[in-house]
Amino acid sequence: MEPRKIIHIDMDAFYASVELREQPHLKNLPVVVAWDGPRSVICAASYPARRFGLHSAMPVATAKRLCPQAVYIPPHFTLYREISQQIHTIFRRYTDLIEPLSLDEAYLDVTRNFRNIPYASQVAKAIRADILAETGLTASAGVAPNKFLAKIASDWNKPDGQFVLPPEKVAAFLATLPAGKIPGVGKVTQQKMQRLGVHTVGDLLRFERGELVNLFGKWGYRLYDLARGIDNRSVKPSRERLQISTEITLPEDLPLADILQQLPHLAEDLWQQAERKKMQFRSITLKLKTADFRILTRSQTFSSALPDAAALLAAARQTAIRMPAGDATYRLIGLGVSHLEPIGQQIALWQENE
After folding, report:
1. Which of 110, 220, 255, 285 could form a disulfide with 213 if both were Cys (CB 3.0 to 4.6 A apart)?
2. pTM of the predicted model, to two decimals?
């Protein structure tokens, strides 16, 4: 069977780069995209800001202590979404097998591509050049035979670079790859691995499948495959959904209380999406993904449409109370709405259905 050719495109510091494009006089300054408030968290940090230790999901209060001179810009999700659509238009010139992960990253299957370019590395280079020429923004790319390896590769030569991992070099690459580079391995899991003497992905080869399942639960099955460079997931093109949603994948695992600080950003983005689509909604769903890829969801349906963004945020926080307490950490948080109706009907006071 012919190996697949998968590209993972990841925009470089996307939100911050967009703001710097709009305000080029800030180019060499530490720029932070965040609402400036005591409970706010960073949405994105420019590369100069990262040199001070600032990063996504960090509380703004902490960031101000580390870098008092940082410039704070509130997020403009409408603009980010417009540019993301522009980037996806570029993707569609090369393939229709596109799986968006967020506004700033996506998988592309270019095993067969519209331009009959023989090498995936050339496709990635052409896409990155088109993005730069048409948006003024840089992107990094990983090229590999599967999604797992492509995602790791895209981070290898950031920013504005690409890394190619051909099938014949996968085993040697994984042998020395730090185990913490596996997507989903957070601090807690990494500490457990270190206690077991697992420091690289290659170290996982010492364990049989059953041993890894006993140690890490269901995630052990996936760890067994990933240690051998196996990832059979196909690139799944997005389809029109009967809901509107938004989500954030964070660079590190966080406890529940910390990850819920992203709710104001998600609620604002979601409300703006609904307004642009001229839709109102009666149901919301909160989604969390744990470090071992378990998905937790909680939903609520109301007797009438939620009237504004503040009501949406309040409903999301109310829904979050139903998430299980404990020591789990989370890598992704998402918020979605359904039971969509066109705006135009009178919006009654909303209350939760029993």
Report:
1. 220
2. 0.76
